[in-house]
């Protein structure tokens, strides 16, 4: 399955066609080639990083490379990364990146090291770069530069409590417009839990809001201009903001993935629209294994267009140890490691892992795991990577989207006022391109 990411396929096709390793080259590969070197990985508390770093000692034993790790919350990690890259500092060698968010910006600034020659000439014989889905590779290509290697596939999905729905005599929502009515009934029937939770933190909110916008039939841009004040844009802003205002948790404007996961895992939310990537953290401890069901966000008038993205692992263009850094990238994204991480609930970006017998057995152990995989399949088939505006200043565009929704959520602006101010700021941003 491939993601219809609406990106150029020419470069990736050429890249995938040229990655075969000759027998001689494979025999020459040496995992100890950079023994004694030290590299630094800037990580965040994303489930992928949390799980891969459990095997840090194995990497160091295999390669003789010392891996130094700096870990932050995601927003703090981004601030640290921008500081280092802006300074052209060699303090960081490897970092996680979201091509759908900062790919254009970082590539235009020259901050990524091009990895395409490494994938062709400096790989172990079992790495199998061809095994990555081509759409995920394409998503990390900007101006013919391979900016990172795919680590996962993810998108927001709806987690909901089957037991609470049954107690309240409710079925799963069948269309997007059902959510306010269901949330109202949940609030009345089960007032001790939050009826509906999703992201409200300004820079993080577009990840979940984008799914609402696309499902009502909206888009961020039309004819080169910001489109938030379209009928569809206003509908999406009103629906999302009012769900959180009327049925969300206190302090919803401060919620990102960490708060959502804690709230739902602890049994304090009936519905939580959050990342598929948080599945292992949500299920940690086992309390939600039996009472949770999963599904994509219900379709709206515009159909079903789930937000679908993937993290990638990148090497800084200012690294003083780029070759050693690549050894960590290929180890962390290898078929063996991604098969291990799949059993921890990290959705694999390699098609072969999804067909692995061990992975299939793991899925079959719990119905909720099967539902998770089914939802991922829908993300892969129907997804869009448009999260924010398709411009170099995409990260800044997300701030304006989040500000518009939060203004309605907090009651400081009407929908019309919020979208008009956002369109004004976003059109100015677009004109600077």
List the SSEs and their pairings.
Layout: H1 10-17, H2 23-28, E1 38-44, H3 47-52, H4 56-63, E2 66-72, H5 74-86, E3 94-97, H6 99-109, H7 116-121, H8 134-139, E4 141-142, E5 145-146, E6 149-150, E7 156-161, H9 162-167, H10 178-189, H11 206-215, E8 221-222, E9 225-226, H12 231-247, H13 257-265, E10 271-275, H14 279-282, E11 292-295, E12 312-315, H15 322-332, H16 335-342, H17 351-354, H18 357-364, H19 367-382, H20 394-409, H21 415-431
Parallel strand pairs: 1-2, 1-3
Antiparallel strand pairs: 3-12, 4-5, 6-12, 7-10, 7-11, 8-9
Helix pairs in contact: 10-12, 12-20, 20-21
How would you briefly describe this protein structure?
It comes from Nitratireductor indicus C115. With 433 residues, the chain is of the alpha+beta class. Helix content is 47%, strand content 11%.
Could you give the order of strands across the largest sheet? Answer: 2-1-3-12-6
Q: Average the pLDDT over all residues and give the rounded result.
A: 92
CATH superfamily of the largest domain: Periplasmic binding protein-like II
Based on the coordinates given, report the CATH architecture of the largest domain: 3-Layer(aba) Sandwich
The number of strands is 12
Number of helices: 21
What is the rounded distance between the termini? 33 Å
Main sheet specs: 5 strands, mixed
Family: Belongs to the bacterial solute-binding protein 1 family.
Subcellular location: Periplasm
InterPro entries: Bact_solute-bd_prot1 (IPR050490), SBP (IPR006059)
GO cellular component, one term: periplasmic space
């Amino acid at each position: 399955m491939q993601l219809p990411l609406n990106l150029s396929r020419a470069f990736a096709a050429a890249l995938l066609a040229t990655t075969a390793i000759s027998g001689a080259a494979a025999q020459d590969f040496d995992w100890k080639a950079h023994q004694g070197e030290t590299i630094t990985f800037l990580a965040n508390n994303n489930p992928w990083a949390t799980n891969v770093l459990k095997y840090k000692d194995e990497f160091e034993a295999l390669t003789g490379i010392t891996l130094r790790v700096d870990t932050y919350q995601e927003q703090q990690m981004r601030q640290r990364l921008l500081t280092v890259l802006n300074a052209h500092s060699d303090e960081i060698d490897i970092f996680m990146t979201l091509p759908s968010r900062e790919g254009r910006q970082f590539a235009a600034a020259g901050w990524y090291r091009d990895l395409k020659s490494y994938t062709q000439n400096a790989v172990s014989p079992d790495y199998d770069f061809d095994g990555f889905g081509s759409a995920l590779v394409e998503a990390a290509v900007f101006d013919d530069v391979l900016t990172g290697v795919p680590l996962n596939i993810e998108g927001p999905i709806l987690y909901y409590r089957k037991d609470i729905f049954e107690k309240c005599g409710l079925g799963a929502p069948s269309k997007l417009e059902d959510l306010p009515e269901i949330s109202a009934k949940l609030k009345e029937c089960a007032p001790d839990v939050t009826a509906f939770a999703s992201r409200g933190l300004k820079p993080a909110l577009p990840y979940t809001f984008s799914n609402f916008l696309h499902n009502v039939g909206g888009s961020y841009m039309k004819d080169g201009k910001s489109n938030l004040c379209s009928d569809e844009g206003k509908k999406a802003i009103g629906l999302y903001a009012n769900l959180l205002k009327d049925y969300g948790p206190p302090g919803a404007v401060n919620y990102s993935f960490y708060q959502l996961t804690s709230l739902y895992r602890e049994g304090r939310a009936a519905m939580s629209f959050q990342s598929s990537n948080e599945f292992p953290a949500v299920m940690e401890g086992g309390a939600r294994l039996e009472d949770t069901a999963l599904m994509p966000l219900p379709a709206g008038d515009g159909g079903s267009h789930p937000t679908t993205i993937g993290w990638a692992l990148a090497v800084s263009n200012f690294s003083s140890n780029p070759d050693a850094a690549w050894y960590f990238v290929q180890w962390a994204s290898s078929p063996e490691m991604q098969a291990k991480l799949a059993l921890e609930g990290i959705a694999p970006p390699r098609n072969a892992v999804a067909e692995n017998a061990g992975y299939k057995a793991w899925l079959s152990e719990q119905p909720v795991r099967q539902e998770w995989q089914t939802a991922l399949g829908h993300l892969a088939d129907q997804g869009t990577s448009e999260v924010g505006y398709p411009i170099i200043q995409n990260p800044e565009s997300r701030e304006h989207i989040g500000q518009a929704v939060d203004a309605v959520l907090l009651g400081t602006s009407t929908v019309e006022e919020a979208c008009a101010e956002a369109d004004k700021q976003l059109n100015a941003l677009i004109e600077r391109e």
